[in-house]
Amino acid sequence: MQLKKKPVTGMKDILPREMEIRDYVIGLIKETYKEFGFTSMETPCVEHIENLTSKQGGDNEKLIFRILKRGEKLKINEAKEENDLVDSGLRYDLTVPLCRFYSNNANELPSPFKALQMGNVFRADRPQRGRFRQFMQCDIDILGDPTNLAEIDVILATSTLVGKLDFESFAIRINDRRFLKAMAAYSGFPEESYDQVFIILDKMDKIGLEGVAAELEGSGFAKEGIEKYIALFDAIGEGLDGVKYCKDKLEGFLEPDVADNMSTIIESVTEAKTANFRIIFDPTLVRGMSYYTGPIFEICIDGFSGSVGGGGRYDEMIGKFTGTPTPATGFSIGFERIVMLLMERGFQVPGSADKKAYLLDKKLSSEKLVEVVKKAGEERKAGKSVNIVYMKKNKKFQKEQLQSEGYEIIEEIYND
Amino acid sequence: MQLKKKPVTGMKDILPREMEIRDYVIGLIKETYKEFGFTSMETPCVEHIENLTSKQGGDNEKLIFRILKRGEKLKINEAKEENDLVDSGLRYDLTVPLCRFYSNNANELPSPFKALQMGNVFRADRPQRGRFRQFMQCDIDILGDPTNLAEIDVILATSTLVGKLDFESFAIRINDRRFLKAMAAYSGFPEESYDQVFIILDKMDKIGLEGVAAELEGSGFAKEGIEKYIALFDAIGEGLDGVKYCKDKLEGFLEPDVADNMSTIIESVTEAKTANFRIIFDPTLVRGMSYYTGPIFEICIDGFSGSVGGGGRYDEMIGKFTGTPTPATGFSIGFERIVMLLMERGFQVPGSADKKAYLLDKKLSSEKLVEVVKKAGEERKAGKSVNIVYMKKNKKFQKEQLQSEGYEIIEEIYND
């Protein structure tokens, strides 16, 4: 009976104060995406080990919690390596399960399928401050829509959500993998070095344009190309004019359609947005994952480094899994990061103020108790949260505690 | 790249139609318990293997999904048995994690602590129709309140919830472990045979009072005692009169306080209830788990055999885990069962009717697209769910599909 009190290494208990904010954000996410025609779906936390180790998960595949085979299938004596012992594992993201879900259920799903998936994912990562081995992920995906309506949809829905969370100002940065490639081609970088170039470019935020130039030079790229490359970034504006500049300048390297596509997205979002934010064309935006094939985007909040959500088009991934090519656009909300930011700024969940507590005398008659319970029922019907508790010896401390939980009205009840 | 399409054995993908109902029920649960002063909390899905195998989980401990140790800790060659390979497992219920949570965080929690915990639990059970190896559990617990206010609270809150779900009529059956014991003592059964007697009594629903008598006789109990026992059940009414009858009849076997306690609960719930249900004193109610120490209760819905939720007082369990005696009352909602019943009766989530879809001509100009997207934004602000999709070749089929998803208004958009 020696109970271990702490959670398993790297995981955490979530206390009421944080849960209130989490529940509020979850409710807001579901409500907002529903308004945009998204439907919720869910996959199990446990996934086939084969699916988790199919090379689509990158480094995350090193971080799998593996689950032991059960019963007769488990042969400890014969086992030589991990895979002899396991048949499944905890998912490290929601994308692999989404692909499996889609391939299993496509016949019963509308097309395009606009999915909202929220769920816990698990990574046996090195424990770090503020990063846990179980955390909530929240993915929005549109499967089966090859048009820019998908990008417009996920960007408008997600910005509407962030707007509702009272962040003072935020921005959506947008780019397109095909712009990135065209700019590299225009500058004369060899195609096989693109990934290397983009990894260096991705450090812009930290080392600046000059730092990027220096690192490219250090990697042995031709000076002339680097200068051409850097000059491009210097010249490009952050709105529709930037896109126009690219369309003209990169002629022969960039399909005009791709530029027009970007213009329509920026224009539609700017015209139709309901939240207060800017959409910024940012040709330095890379986003790490190599599976993106078209537009890519990120949400940044002023005063906070790093993004609180991002995504893009990945038209080739589902087909690799399912055998059926399926255009796809996704946006992943940084749920844990948003909750952390709200906690830090002492965010109050709207409507949580209307809380009342009854403090009962220990010797209250059962008639009087019935009376209070009845009255509380009526107040709840009228929309209040009502708590009923017995008085403790240290009434002063008890009242302070109730106040700290948000009970502004506290009524003491005695026998008459 | 051979993706396994089906979920892991015994687990399931949840499609949008079911998820809509699940999300609705989850929202209602959170809202209702919040009104009663409960706060949400969460524990990780992964728990120390020591805690999961501490003999508090009964048969569920045979059904644990065990998680392999990672890195240097995993020594396959030296392993002799399962426990050499694992350090944690997936939780099979929410009670063990609640006890650990409470012992870890009691200093930061109010007293009494009124907790709502919803989360997935995992059992490597034999796959059966309608039962899955991952399912949602939903537990309400009041820790630290020794009074019947705890029972009144959980019963009123839970009945309010069930009432909101439009079940035509339902009942709450209530009993008390101490009544069960007093009745057995009064009838002359020896104390060490109580558990055996209760197991037989628990079959009442299926075999009737006569069946219970026959089985008791078959087990070798004295005929006189059995007759006395059966006569008791025959004579007891289902309301306050039944409690009064027991108080008088069982004098010397039942503390009068225990009967008064039961009367106050029944009276308070009857007076203060906001939903349409009956609370029935049922001296044949046993509930399996041996850890109950006081009142026990179940919710039954007319026309459905089995309960959709149940619980009781378990004042001795937390102390066994934590070393600090803590009174506790809990109610577990049969979440999966409720969702199943709602699905079966074709339940429509309220407010889901207000859905509109725009069907766009494939050749729509980007100006016109911006116009539609803008209009949709305004309609969403006014509370509608609005979906925008491009027309497909088979427009008729596409419209039917949208209608089946609840889009009652479908507007086709072409260039003027």
UniProtKB/TrEMBL annotation, chains A, B:
Tell me the residue numbers annotated for binding L-histidine.
Answer: 93-95, 123, 137, 141, 287, 291-292
Which top-rank group of organisms is this from?
Bacteria
Q: Which InterPro entries match?
A: aa-tRNA-synth_II, aa-tRNA-synth_II/BPL/LPL, His-tRNA-ligase, HisRS-like_core, HisRS/HisZ
GO cellular component term of the entry, any:
cytoplasm
> Known catalysed reaction(s)?
tRNA(His) + L-histidine + ATP = L-histidyl-tRNA(His) + AMP + diphosphate + H(+)
- Gene Ontology molecular function, alphabetical: ATP binding; catalytic activity, acting on a protein; histidine-tRNA ligase activity; transferase activity
GO process terms (BP): histidyl-tRNA aminoacylation
The residues covered by the Aminoacyl-transfer RNA synthetases class-II family profile domain are 1-350
Give UniProt keywords alphabetically.
ATP-binding, Ligase, Nucleotide-binding, Protein biosynthesis
Pfam family name, one: tRNA-synt_His
Q: Which PROSITE patterns match?
A: AA_TRNA_LIGASE_II
EC number(s) in its UniProt entry? Answer: 6.1.1.21
| Family indicated by similarity | Belongs to the class-II aminoacyl-tRNA synthetase family.
**Protein name as annotated:** Histidine--tRNA ligase
> From which organism does this entry originate?
Blautia pseudococcoides
